[in-house]
């Protein structure tokens, strides 16, 4: 069996780039997309840790990906749960009882999403060589 190249730093670099994109999206008033991109940044950061440990990871739920690390702090898993709430409803009108996603999110939500995603990315950085 061939050993796969460690791409963990690439995943972490993209997570950082995603956080920058989220800030730009929020500044432009696209808070729903900023929230979604924050969830994506956290997902990529956690996948970077899995890769750094030689583990494969599947799926998009940040909380589950963190749980599968087996040593993630409980508060970080809770942060993952909060970010996971931005995965679908930020993009699809049927994710809310009425209205388009862009009508559901504002600076409060995108600011909190960026703050939470930053914590996940910082945690991942300390676990990716």
How would you explain this protein's 3D organization?
By secondary structure, the protein is mainly alpha-helical. The protein has one domain: Four Helix Bundle (Hemerythrin (Met), subunit A), CATH 1.20.120.330. Helix content is 60%, strand content 0%. The protein has helices at 8-27, 31-52, 62-67, 74-84, 107-125. Helix 1 (8-27) runs antiparallel to helix 5 (107-125) and helix 2 runs parallel beside helix 5 (107-125). The protein is globular and about 45 Å long. The two termini are 24 Å apart. 40% of the residues are buried. The model has no long low-confidence stretch (mean pLDDT 96).
Secondary structure: elements and pairs:
Layout (H helix, E strand, L loop, with lengths): L7 H20 L3 H22 L9 H6 L6 H11 L22 H19 L4
Helix pairs in contact: 1-2, 1-5, 2-5, 4-5
Measured as a percent range, the helix fraction is: 55-70%
Radius of gyration: 15 Å
Write the element-wise H/E pattern from the N-terminal end onward: HHHHH
**Which fold name fills CATH's third level, the topology?**
Four Helix Bundle (Hemerythrin (Met), subunit A)
| Major sheet attributes | none
Number of strands: 0
Please report which band the strand proportion falls in: under 5%, 5-15%, 15-25%, 25-35%, 35-45% or over 45%.
under 5%
Q: Helix count, per DSSP?
A: 5
Shape verdict: globular
Q: So what's the CATH class?
A: Mainly Alpha
What count of structural domains? 1
Computed structural class: mainly alpha
- Chain-averaged pLDDT: 96
* Straight-line distance between termini: 24 Å
CATH architecture grouping: Up-down Bundle
Low-confidence stretches: none
Question: CATH homologous superfamily?
Answer: Nucleotidyltransferases  domain 2
